[in-house]
Amino acid sequence: MSSLDGDVSQNGSLKRVDALRALAEIEEFDFSRSLDKPPRTLNMERQRSCDERSMNELFGVPSPSPRPSSRAENNFRLSDHLDGLHSPGRRSGFNTPRSQYGFETHPSVAEAWDALRRSLVFFRGQPVGTIAALDNNTDEQLNYDQVFVRDFVPSALAFLMNGEPEIVKNFILKTLRLQSWEKKIDRFHLGEGVMPASFKVLHDPIRNSETLMADFGESAIGRVAPVDSGFWWIFLLRAYTKSTGDASLAEMPECQKGMRLILSLCLSEGFDTFPTLLCADGCCMIDRRMGVYGYPIEIQALFFMALRCALLLLKQDDEGKEFVERITKRLHALSFHMRSYYWIDLKQLNDIYRYKTEEYSHTAVNKFNVIPDSLPEWIFDFMPVHGGYFIGNVSPAKMDFRWFCLGNCIAILSSLATPEQSTAIMDLIESRWEELVGEMPLKVIYPAIESHEWRIVTGCDPKNTRWSYHNGGSWPVLLWLLTAACIKTGRPQIARRAIELAETRLVKDNWPEYYDGKLGRFIGKQARKFQTWSVAGYLVAKMLLEDPSHLDGNLIFSGDRAKSSLLTHSSTSHFDHVFCLYICAIPECLFSILL
């Protein structure tokens, strides 16, 4: 072990005591809200999936890099580099006919790994990401030949779970380098902390050199900067650190500065009266005009997750401590706001239905002056007796009641959703399986907008027609988020059912980007084939289902599942709750110091 690693193991843990105490204080605040009414007791069968796993598993270090293999050439001259790639390692067991637990793996797994390998993009001999799509049957590339930050997330997780962290490390460093570039659209300079939406490797055969070209929104449809890229970058840095046990990357001055620049954009003071982030349409996965401007759930959930990750990654120097204080205050405010005003279930729907309007005082119930007549007809039949979800958007006199899959799954994974709310979201998915899953998981939005509303909201967008693309299309990439949420809530059977459904079509259909139709029956009319995040999303879902300890090792915060289980027992005293919440937030390496 290097001296740097030694410093990290001995001193890095101590540096984070203050940050972990801040996390505990946040959890204490969150629990105090749950005292208002006793939470509904969860089915303990749902909580069994991983709660018994030891702390050692939660902080396990992956195996050394496995054997190399070679693949065919693609547009990025992969044949020059693929001889040095790794085949799937022992953690996944996907390089053999059987998994490490003895049961047969699905034939789609080998196909998926092959497709993921072929999508790798190299820069000066090193893999730095995966191409968005490798569809050789179309001459219209658009920007599908680039490495997208959000698209690479499931690929990164697949490689981390498979014991191949170097690819992820290269990606983190290359995108960090791009962040420092001058970002200008026309005559306007973007904020210093903005991360690119995507980048491309340009090869000059004459000079035999390679350069990177980044897109910060100046080439995107609508010219919108990607708000989500910075949040996904912080998440990947946390996932890399947690998966490898190597904190040296996150503690590099460059990475610390990169995080602070991202956070400065989000935590800056302005005219906002809400702790949520104000965003333009098209600033996230839904990158076209779809009526998500304002305070979309996807951005707010990612924001919350990134803040929690940053709280654990920032060093406790003078600059870091200032940000920790700002993050802690924002997390308190954001969690309260989201859980109070974005959450809807049958009771809350009935309350909104009976709202009075034009209330003026601090005691107003209808704080955003939402007009009850604006409630859409479909929601009265859609809302089950048991179940609920975070709605799409809340702002003055406006509530977007559409279901957004990504935002709700991230809310579960980041613990923005309380244990009771997480269970209700799972109940909703089970109750409305035909609407949200149908014949191909999963609906990115439900329901689709159509007719006059479609013309007004999308501007007659020919790609976002009803039940297509972002307007109610079915996206296989969302499988990994659903699976992670299912495992965290102790409902793996939901994920297994969705994965089995996807396996009947994905390989046969050549891994489409999305499916169209109310049930997701048809390959999307403009969907690319061999869409990388469809491939990677499936692989991550399979690996999580095979070995749920990956969830603790890569995706969620230590002790979150234990805290979720703890909070369902209303008989425990408030002091016991707070004490256990704090202990759950402490890594195993600190127990020998603190006890």
UniProtKB/TrEMBL annotation:
GO terms for molecular function: endo-alpha-N-acetylgalactosaminidase activity; sucrose alpha-glucosidase activity. Residues 34-55 have a biased composition (Basic and acidic residues). SUPFAM superfamilies: Six-hairpin glycosidases. It catalyses: Hydrolysis of terminal non-reducing beta-D-fructofuranoside residues in beta-D-fructofuranosides. Transmembrane segments: none annotated. GO terms for biological process: sucrose catabolic process. Keywords: Carbohydrate metabolism, Glycosidase, Hydrolase. Its EC number is 3.2.1.26. Belongs to the glycosyl hydrolase 100 family. This is Alkaline/neutral invertase.
